[in-house]
Write a structure and sequence with these properties.
Elements lengths: L1 H56 L5 H9 L2 E5 L10 E2 L2 E2 L6 H9 L4 E4 L5 E8 L4 E8 L1 H9 L1
Antiparallel strand pairs: 1-6, 2-3, 4-5, 5-6
């Protein structure tokens, strides 16, 4: 009789520990997603500000490569008509291969902005208009830590 009581108490303790661990994993994953997206957004905004400064200075032709290298993000710039002014690939990301990029660019050209995380959580895309009707900037910020966290759980 005492053996069954000990086994029952052990099973209850194990089940409780597993439940608590699952709750902590889910909460930390949600916090990681939130913070990663906020950091990516900040990085993208800084990159867009650098590009806007280049537009203002008339040095946009050199800026996307410099910004992409310094900020470690993929950078694309389109003119007011939606024509790509930069290389079609930046830091290994092909703009043509990004699902929904056309809609994001259209939103930015209309004066709005687009902010979204890729379905596989590997990156966050941000599209912003450039002042003065100069077009729009699209920045793709890689988030390998976010993609890795989604495979843990």
């Amino acid at each position: 009789m005492r053996v069954w009581l000990a086994i029952t108490i052990g099973l209850i303790a194990a089940l409780t520990a597993a439940t608590v661990a699952l709750v902590f994993v889910q909460r930390s994953d949600a916090l990681l997603r939130k913070n990663s997206t906020e950091i990516a957004l900040g990085t993208a905004v800084n990159a867009v500000q650098d590009l806007q400064s280049a537009v203002d200075d008339g040095t946009l032709d050199l800026a996307p490569l410099r910004v992409a290298t310094e900020r470690r993000v993929a950078v694309f710039v389109v003119d007011a008509a939606g024509t790509l002014l930069t290389a079609p690939t930046s830091r290994g990301v092909s703009l043509a291969g990004v699902d929904g990029a056309d809609e994001d660019i259209a939103a930015a050209l209309a004066g709005g902005r687009a902010i979204r995380t890729f379905e596989d959580n590997s990156a966050t895309l941000v599209a912003f208009p450039l002042r003065g009707g100069a077009g729009a900037a699209v920045v793709v910020v890689p988030q390998p830590e976010l993609a890795a966290s989604s495979t843990i759980v």
